[in-house]
């Protein structure tokens, strides 16, 4: 009985490669439907994130203008402030989602390159 290193079993390597490729394909199919709903949901998020602060600013501005006498148009100023807050909120959420998407893509590329390296080693 000599202590020679065992050669890797070709069947187990092939099964592992097939398993990883089928897992990637299943994930891609599953995410294809989610991307559509994700896009529609993101449009809703963007819309509400801009409209809600704008409307709040508008309503508060109307209330201030109706209860006090001022030479400033609070309605216009608070509407613009609400719009700016909404746009900043959307910018924050879209950047966050973009970072997560990039991270997922980088993780997939890392997995793919690891699989390719293992295939070349054989």
Description:
The structure is a single chain. The chain is an all-alpha fold and 122 residues long. 87% of the residues lie in helices and 0% in strands. It contains 2 helices and no strands. The chain has helices at residues 10-67, 74-121. Helix 1 (10-67) runs antiparallel to helix 2. It is rod-shaped and about 85 Å long. The model has no long low-confidence stretch (mean pLDDT 80).
Question: What portion of residues is helical?
Answer: over 70%
Gap between N and C termini, in Å? 26 Å
Low-confidence stretches: none
- Give the overall average pLDDT: 80
User: How many DSSP helices?
Assistant: 2
Order of helices and strands: HH
- The helix/strand class is mainly alpha
The largest β sheet comes out as: none
What is the β-strand count? 0
Radius of gyration: 27 Å
* Strand residue content: under 5%
Overall morphology: rod-shaped
Task: Please describe the structure with a list of short key phrases separated by commas or semicolons.
87% helix; single chain; mainly alpha; 122 residues; 0% strand
Topology:
Elements (H helix, E strand, L loop, with lengths): L9 H58 L6 H48 L1
Short description:
With 122 residues, this protein is mainly α. The chain has helices at residues 10-67, 74-121.
